[in-house]
Write a structure and sequence with these properties.
20% strand, 34% helix, 336 residues, 13 strands
Amino acid sequence: MSEGLVEGEGFAVDASVVKADANRARGVPGTEVIDWRQGDGPSRAVQEYLSALEEANPAPSDDVESATPPKRISLTDPAARYTAAPGGPAFFAYSTNYLIDLHAGIIVDVEATPAHRTQEVESTKTMVDRVEQRFALKPKRLVGDTAYGTGAMLAWMVQEKGIDPHVPVWQRPPRNDGTFPNSDFHWIERSDEYRCAAGHALRKERRPFKAQRSHITRAGTIIYRSSQTDCASCSMKDQCCPNTPMRKIARSVHEEAREEARAIANTPAYKRSRRERKKVEMLFAHLKRILKLDRLRLRGPSGAHDEFLLAATAQNLRRMAKWLVPVSQQAVTAPT
């Protein structure tokens, strides 16, 4: 920062999977009840795993749905996540999450998480908040891939942090049955309703309720429905909802943030951000091919964090040497 290699204008975030020091043959089904007592007691990696479980679930309740158990759990490093690359065998792994400044590709924060998409995305909030607290840096734009384009994540960027999301919006695949896509329906904010091509309204409620309802589903959406009477007499029903009595549209509660992200995607700045995102991908390639960190030596979340942090520090030192030392001097001082 003191040498001007960090501007704080634009950040990029991404994650890369690194194999854990855990043999896949030492895994057991995630639904199996495990006795973690080994000799004098559980290992450090197991203790960290159990402490994280207690922190996440301090008081189990019958009316709260438990999280889906992982497919397999490692007996040596249970916090590692059982995952697989496309076309390859499954293995236990952690993810190293990088938050970099796009000016010179300096890593401003790193976070170790189990190799799980949800935890990778959530680590972005931790890193952005930590950089803001430590260095008083908050980017104007944050660049990421589609994994970071969920409605909740975009709302956090736009509404809570005031950051422009240079991120592709995650959305469901388009309808392939030949019927009208949701984009053909016009949203009217003033009346809180959609309008179809025939001019009929799709509303979230059609009669008043004694107790006010939010209409928000577990998926974080609000369902807007047309009138069954309108659809029954509509000449375009076969093109709209041939297999249902009415048309339904699920609107995300974070749709405003999603619309803002879509608008940014049409700007020249967004295209520049997509090119600059390669800087974080190049760091991961260097991490595994040059620094040879394709498998961890330490176990547990703290071990993964230590290795990822040391590797990121080494990459920053290398980047500083290339940026700050003149090319002519590098040629003179380079070892033979």
